[in-house]
Design a protein that fits this description.
16% of the residues lie in helices and 29% in strands. By secondary structure, the chain is an alpha+beta fold. The chain has 2 domains: 65 residues, no CATH class; 225 residues, Fumarylacetoacetate hydrolase, domain 2, CATH 3.90.850.10. Strands 1, 2, 3, 4, 5, 6, 7, 10, 11, 13 and 16 form an 11-stranded mixed β-sheet that branches. A 5-stranded mixed β-sheet has the order 8-18-17-14-15, with no helix packed on it. The protein has a two-stranded antiparallel ribbon with strand order 9-12. A hairpin with a 2-residue loop joins strand 2 and strand 3.
Length: 305
C-alpha cells in the first residue's frame, strides 16, 4: 500500500495513477494537522488496514494530476539521518564509524515544492538521494534482528546539504543540513510489506534531466536494520519518525538556481520532483563531487573558510 497526503493534507491511498481519499475511514484518528493524522494512522494501522483497503478497492479515486501531493510526513517529531553509511562502490575498505545527525523537521517539503538555497557562504550545495525508513511504533534499543517489526514503511528522501560552512573552523551538521526546505520527502509512504528486500533497491536522481546519482542500497555499509538498531540505541523512536539511511556520494554535484530535481526509488511510485531557487543566482561548475576538490579549495580561500 502507498499512503499519501494530498491537497489540504488529506490522507489517501495511491492506486495506480489515482489517489483515493480515505479521510472518511480514518476520521476518528486525531488530526490536528497532517503530521498527527498520518502518525496516528501509522500507529493504529493494524486496526485500520481493513477499512482502508476496502475504501481503496471501492473507489476509482482522482487522477494524480488533479491533486497536489504533499510530503506524507510533513513534520516528523524525529528526523534522523545517517552519515557516511555507504561503501562508495567498494572504494572504502571498511565501513566508517556509526554516525548520524538530527535534521530539522521544519525542513520537510513535498513533491512540486522548491528547495531554497540560503544566503550562507557555502562553496556549493548538494543533493543526496536516500532511502527513508518510517518507524511504526514506539521503540528503544531495538536489536537488528527485530528491527523489521518496528518499520512501518519506506519513503523517498533527499538530504539537501550546504557544503563547507565551518564556523570556528569546525564542520557543522546544523549549518550544513537544517535549513528550511532541505528535507524533501515523498510523494508516498510505501508500506514495508511491499518492499521485498530493502537492501536491493535502485535509487536514482536527476538534475535538470541529467542523471547524477545511480546507486543501489546493497552498497550500504550497515543495513537498514542495523541503522534502526543504532538510532534506537541512542534515542527512542515513535510512529511517524523518519530515519534516512545515507547516500553513496559518487555522483554528487552542485544544485543551483533554476535546476529541477527528480528522484526515484524503483517500485515506490511517482518520482519526487522539485525546483531549486537561489535569490543570489550563484552558479558553480556542474561536475560531480569527485571532480570538485580544486574548485572547492579555491572558493574556500575566497570566502575565508
Amino acid at each position: 500500500m502507498k499512503l499519501v497526503l494530498f491537497n489540504d493534507f488529506t490522507p489517501g491511498v495511491l492506486k495506480g495513477d489515482s489517489v483515493v481519499d480515505i479521510s472518511g475511514v480514518v476520521s476518528d484518528v486525531p488530526h490536528i494537522d497532517g503530521q498527527t493524522w498520518m502518525s496516528g494512522i501509522i500507529e493504529g494501522f493494524d486496526g485500520l488496514r481493513g477499512a482502508i483497503e476496502s475504501a481503496a478497492a471501492g473507489s476509482d479515486g482522482t487522477p494524480v494530476g488533479n491533486v497536489r501531493l504533499r510530503a506524507p510526513l510533513p513534520e516528523p517529531r524525529r528526523l534522523v539521518c545517517m552519515a557516511g553509511n555507504y561503501m562508495e562502490n567498494a572504494s572504502r575498505a571498511l565501513v566508517g564509524d556509526r554516525d548520524a545527525f538530527l535534521k530539522s523537521p521544519s525542513g520537510v517539503i513535498g513533491d512540486g515544492d522548491t528547495v531554497v538555497l540560503p544566503d550562507c557562504p557555502a562553496p556549493h550545495f548538494h543533493h543526496e538521494a536516500e532511502l527513508g525508513v518510517v518507524i511504526g511504533k514506539t521503540a528503544s534499543r531495538v536489536c537488528a534482528e527485530d528491527a523489521a517489526a518496528n518499520i512501518f514503511g519506506y519513503v523517498q528522501f533527499i538530504d539537501v546539504s550546504a557544503r563547507g560552512v565551518d564556523p570556528n573552523g569546525n564542520s557543522s551538521f546544523f549549518w550544513g543540513k537544517s535549513w528550511d526546505t532541505f528535507a524533501p520527502m515523498g510523494p508516498a509512504i510505501v508500506t514495508a510489506d511491499e518492499v521485498a528486500d530493502p537492501q536491493n533497491l535502485d535509487i536514482k536522481l536527476w538534475i535538470s534531466g541529467d542523471i547524477r546519482q545511480d546507486l543501489n542500497t546493497s552498497d550500504m555499509g550497515r543495513s537498514v536494520y542495523e541503522v534502526v538498531e543504532f538510532v534506537s540505541w541512542i534515542t527512542t523512536v515513535k510512529a511517524g519518525d523518519v530515519i534516512s539511511t545515507g547516500t553513496n556520494h559518487v555522483g554528487l554535484g552542485p544544485i543551483q538556481d533554476g535546476d529541477t530535481i527528480e528522484m526515484e526509488i524503483g517500485g515506490f511510485g511517482p518520482r519526487l520532483r522539485l525546483n531549486v531557487k537561489d535569490d543570489w543566482k550563484r552558479t558553480w561548475p556542474r561536475e560531480p563531487l569527485s571532480r570538485m576538490t580544486a574548485f572547492e579549495s579555491t572558493v574556500r580561500a575566497k570566502v575565508g573558510r
